[in-house]
Amino acid sequence: MLKQIILIAAAMTLTGLTVAAQSTRFLPNHLAVLRAGDGALDLNLKQSPTFIDQYAPGILNDAPSLTVKIPTNGPDTLFFNGHAATEGILTLSADHRLLAFAGYGGTNLLATQGTPSLLDFKRGFCTVDAGGQIQTFFYRQHGGDDEKMNPRGVVTDGNNNFWGCGNALGTVYYNPTGAVGTVNFIEIPTTRSIKIINNVLYTTLNNADATASDLPAGIFGFADKNGAPVALPQSTSTTLQPLVRARPPYTKIAGFDMNPEATIAYTADVAAGIQKYVKSGGNWKFAYNFAIPQNIPADDNHQNGCFGLAVDFSGPAPVIFATTTEGYDGCVNSNRVVQIVDTGAQAAVITVAQAHSSSIAFRGIALTPGTP
Asked: Which H, E and C letters describe 14-54, residue by residue?
């Protein structure tokens, strides 16, 4: 009996040491997932407590190995609408040092209730470094009673230059240390997601955005008013330049990624899954679509596609990570993080993490930050 007690005590001690030894920093080659909701507050309130969770790739994680909680009151408050279908893009900076997302702040969570895109909240960006340090920037006020402006995402080069995407002239350039303030790209009414790849800025338009801009849905680069490509635009007269045209019916796209050589691209369609495009002979061609197996009954399910998307191109086959759009009651919730090793059109889709509550939604996804 004494031996059993000693063994139990030893096991408890080892468990305590394991917990104490958990990293307080993001680990390299892991996944950072932007989470809306704490499992208690209803996502239908449209103002969600916000977290960034870390997961290991390649396995089913029971829980995140690290969580960074974004403040919900005070000067660094930033939150987004976890019920909105378009908000919550997460990006990794061009120097791989900072995670970034966009949202609302300048007020405490639920201090004024309602749809935040319609309310007089400041629009802002939040960055999180490898040590979990948070910094918040506010780049514009609400534009007026009739304006519905959703800040959808942001990306930074790591040197105080930020580019945001959204609707109602929400595609912007901002430098908090500069004298010009916020630069609105007035020729671009709406964009869906945004990313810097090999020091070039790209964005996506889905079918609704494309109709508003008289352009095709797909992945775009940026150009000046004369149509000349601009890698990192800062002018009000910036325009869009089509790069990868989404093949119908895969036009409900949100997240995307592309290899540094700009020869392989992926898009996340919120209703269909993940699409692969390959550049051949100077032209982009559709390769195939990865459909996402569902774990919510079809009659109850919100959608069966993907929203956030990040790809690791460092190995022999691209490894795709995405957040799904499953959910109950017309909302993304109880959804998953999935992984695909792209060895071909029949590659398996595995689950990396599962949101265990209808009051939690996984939204944006990126690789974890580290040193430049």
From this structure: HHHHHHHCCCCCCCCCCEEEEEECCCCCCHHHCCECEEEEE
pLDDT on residue 95: 96
**What average pLDDT does range 26-53 have in this prediction?**
96
Instruction: Determine the distance from the C-alpha atom of residue 165 to the mean position of all C-alpha atoms in its chain, rounded to a whole number.
Output: 11
Contact 256, 202 (CB under 8 A): yes
Q: What is the pTM of this model?
A: 0.92
SS3 128: strand
Domains of the chain as residue ranges with CATH: 24-367 (2.120.10.30)
Distance CA 221, CA 214 (A): 16
Question: End-to-end distance of the chain based on CA atoms, in angstroms?
Answer: 55
Summarize pLDDT for 329-363 with one digit per residue, the tens.
Answer: 989 999 999 999 999 999 999 999 999 999 999 99
CA distances from 303 to 94, 235, 268, 332 (A): 31, 37, 13, 8
Residue 133: strand pairing partners: none
User: What tens digit of pLDDT does each residue of 248-270 get?
Assistant: 999 999 999 999 999 999 999 99
